[in-house]
Specification:
InterPro entries: Glutathione-S-Trfase_C_sf, Glutathione_S-Trfase_N, GST_Omega/HSP26, Thioredoxin-like_sf. With 209 residues, the protein is α+β, with helices and mostly antiparallel strands. It has two domains: 76 residues, Glutaredoxin, CATH 3.40.30; 108 residues, Glutathione S-transferase Yfyf (Class Pi), Chain A, domain 2 (Up-down Bundle), CATH 1.20.1050.10. It is built from nine helices and four strands, in the order βαβαββααααααα. β1, α1 and β2 form a beta-alpha-beta unit. α1 packs parallel to α3, α1 packs across α7 and α4 packs antiparallel against α5. The mean pLDDT is 97. Bound molecules: glutathione. The site of glutathione has 14 residues, from α3 and α4.
Length: 209
Amino acid sequence: MSTPSMTLFHNPASPYVRKVMVLLHETGQLNRVALQASQLSPVAPDAALNQDNPLGKIPALRLDNGQVLYDSRVILDYLDQQHVGNPLIPRDGSARWRRLTLAALADGIMDASVLVRYELALRAPEKHWEQWLDGQRDKIRRALAVLEAEAIAELASHFDIAAISVACALGYLDFRHPDLEWRQDHPQLAAWYFEISQRPSMLATRPPV
Ligand SMILES: N[C@@H](CCC(=O)N[C@@H](CS)C(=O)NCC(=O)O)C(=O)O
């Protein structure tokens, strides 16, 4: 087995890190990356990570020449150009922009979900800003509605950047926000997610219980 040449700042609870891990599994590159555990939140930063990523966010990927890549979209793009199989990010044409837009929609679900998580887990309950929380949850609901109405066939067509990103966003909703009961109004998305959750890359990267 080859020695890893890159280091990934990693936490199994992060949906953004999960995207990177799923892509590494799907493209056969797992053994190229060593994982460096990072425990952090916006109020409890990881000093080692801050040296490599001034934004203090994971994932960050240190390459063998010392260069550091962030954020997850940049890392996915880089890693997708490092394997010989079919690209998981279309290189050009309208498919590229459509698949990246679906991926951005999924990232937006993660962004809103992570912000809600921080507000609920890190701030005292009497300081919770309900109107802001509702605004974030509305973003999640609108994005899920669009995926259900417009994107199921596209998601089912390949397990690429779009599908990986949506899968990781839904996995995070299950992990941190089961109260949202996202399956209730999105039966097609739920059926798609049930199926792709069985992929080895998804099973191996499930968030901790
Ligand atoms: N847009 C970034 C988001 C990364 C992100 O927010 N990661 C969270 C963990 S899930 C984090 O590092 N939070 C620490 C902080 O915000 O200070 C990406 O796609 O990589």
